[in-house]
């Protein structure tokens, strides 16, 4: 049996196209694989904390040196790491904001990534991610259309962070675009016609 982790990062609630697309991906997964657990984390409803001048030091401390205060300050971070550990499939929905990811998703990634926790260094100093066996689906919503002339920092950023700091390389991206066009209606079935 499998566990799916659903990350929602849009503030638009049920009107969100990225949430609509990520939910459609969840439904496809539920049709195709045996699943016993679905974990949903809505970053807009329950925003991740930002690191401050006290907690930031804990993120750079070796896990072997954690004390009681460390565990208190890293409570959220530890929770989302455990969710990632449990998950076989991770579905991340995000709108595009100024060519990048949503602020809640950035905060979630910053809480998630930690040396000694999501990655380690081998004897040669190479960074080794600890979650290589996961599969990620990235659901991106944007008001305009992607073109060969427009930079796209969103997809490449998420893929690079996950690859470098968690070891996850099996990432599939789906997009719902041109959402600000007059009369726009999202056709998630068409977007996911080649879903695998």
Low-confidence stretches: none
Give the amount of beta strand, in percent: 15-25%
What is the distance, rounded to the nearest whole angstrom, between the alpha carbons of the first and last residues? 18 Å
Q: Looking across the biggest beta sheet, what order are the strands in?
A: 2-1-3-6-7
Compute the CA-based radius of gyration: 17 Å
Helix content: 25-40%
Outline of this structure?
By secondary structure, the chain is α/β, with parallel strands linked by helices. Helix content is 34%, strand content 21%. A hairpin with a 5-residue loop joins β4 (119-121) and β5 (127-129).
Task: Please provide a written account of the structure.
- 34% of the residues lie in helices and 21% in strands.
- The protein is of the alpha/beta class and 196 residues long.
- The strands form two sheets. It has a five-stranded parallel β-sheet, sandwiched between helices.
- Strand 4 (119-121) and strand 5 form a beta hairpin.
- The longest helix is centred in the first third of the chain and has 16 residues, at 17-32.
- The mean pLDDT is 93.
Based on the model shown, name its key terms.
single chain; 196 residues; alpha/beta; five-stranded parallel β-sheet; two-stranded antiparallel sheet; 34% helix
SSE topology sketch:
Layout: E1 2-8, H1 17-32, E2 35-42, H2 56-59, H3 68-73, H4 75-86, E3 89-95, H5 103-112, E4 119-121, E5 127-129, E6 135-141, H6 153-166, E7 170-176, H7 188-191
């Amino acid at each position: 049996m499998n566990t799916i982790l659903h990350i929602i990062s849009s503030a638009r609630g049920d009107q969100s196209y990225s949430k609509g697309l990520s939910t459609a991906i969840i439904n496809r997964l539920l049709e195709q694989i045996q699943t016993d657990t679905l974990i949903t984390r809505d970053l807009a409803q329950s925003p991740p904390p930002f690191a401050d001048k006290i907690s930031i030091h804990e993120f750079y401390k070796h896990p072997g040196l954690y004390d009681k205060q460390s565990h208190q300050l890293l409570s959220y971070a530890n929770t989302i790491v455990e969710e990632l550990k449990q998950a076989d499939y991770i579905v991340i929905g995000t709108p595009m904001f100024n060519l990048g990811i949503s602020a809640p998703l950035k905060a979630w990634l910053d809480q998630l990534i930690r040396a000694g926790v999501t990655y380690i260094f081998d004897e040669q100093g190479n960074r080794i991610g600890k979650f290589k066996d996961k599969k990620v689906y990235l659901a991106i919503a944007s008001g305009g259309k992607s073109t060969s002339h427009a930079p796209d920092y969103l997809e490449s950023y998420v893929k690079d962070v996950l690859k470098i700091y968690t070891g996850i390389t099996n990432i599939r991206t789906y997009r719902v675009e041109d959402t600000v066009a007059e009369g726009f209606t999202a056709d998630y079935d068409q977007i996911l016609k080649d879903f695998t």
